[in-house]
Amino acid sequence: MSADQIDPQAKRAATRQSRIPLPHGGYKLKLLRLLTDPLSRLQNLNPPSVGATESVAIPGPAGDLDARLYRPAGDPPYPTVVFFHGGGFVLGSVETHDWLCRHLTRESECAVLSVEYRLAPEHPFPAAVEDAYAAVEWAAESTAALGGTGDIAVAGDSAGGNLAAVTALMAAERDGPAIERQVLLYPGIGVDPEQESVSEHAGVVLSREDIEWFSAAYYRSEIHRRNPYADPINAGDLSGVAPATVVTAGFDPLRDGGRAYAERLVADGVATRYENYPAMVHGFMTMRDVDRARDAIADVGADLADALDA
């Protein structure tokens, strides 16, 4: 499906977002990181209600990882969704994705464990991957502490969608932990500058320069870029990974990469639901004034509830 125009609500949200251009390194990046969490906390003053939230420290390969656990209303146990935020591997935090994680908790009736991981360029690949996999291992081993059923899913948006897919691949290749579902929201997977979506939509939320800088900051070399744990589109066999939900946006430069990965999953026999929102833009599921964001979160929540028997 295609759309002739960007949804007006998404266009307004993207225009507001574009007033703070993405920095490409150095002092401006550090300044934006310092400003992002306070601004996010202001936006989150009246958040969607959940049963409870809890700060969690997860042992990681280079020190504890900060995380926030969102518990649904009702009594435990609950299935657990380990969530990884987006931000091009250089930005983002628990705070920037609080609204999305709260709605995901409500719609799925699962506990959502939102995890912070080391960011590039200070910590390039494979630091974020190591942190993400360690978080999933910890969640699988910490059923009692999480009030969990033992059922685990992974989810993430943009760069976090890449990490969710990579952890699902690693879990399949390393015989665990068992992952029941992977939810990839406009993931940063399989992006090629020659793709139609990049050619036509670069500059809508993400410019070609943004994509190139994020990629260089994270991968650092072409050798790393071709590693399946850096970009799972490079995996030789995906047949053992968890069933998937893949969401893309019609006006997103990353659209064709996400679709290509969904097609690879299907070709390798992985049960996959692929949904493209034709009038949407990159990052739309974090845009609280966009009605279709809530629709998409509800659909994803239903997938998780079905997969995890929540």
Automatic annotation (TrEMBL):
The lineage of its organism: Archaea, Methanobacteriati, Methanobacteriota, Stenosarchaea group, Halobacteria. This is Alpha/beta hydrolase. Gene3D superfamilies: alpha/beta hydrolase (3.40.50.1820). Residues 1-21 are annotated as: Disordered. The keyword Hydrolase applies. SUPFAM superfamilies: alpha/beta-Hydrolases. Residues 81-285 form the Alpha/beta hydrolase fold-3 domain. PANTHER family: AB HYDROLASE SUPERFAMILY PROTEIN C4A8.06C (PTHR48081), ALPHA_BETA HYDROLASE FOLD-3 DOMAIN-CONTAINING PROTEIN-RELATED (PTHR48081:SF8). GO terms for molecular function: hydrolase activity. Keywords: Hydrolase. Belongs to the 'GDXG' lipolytic enzyme family.
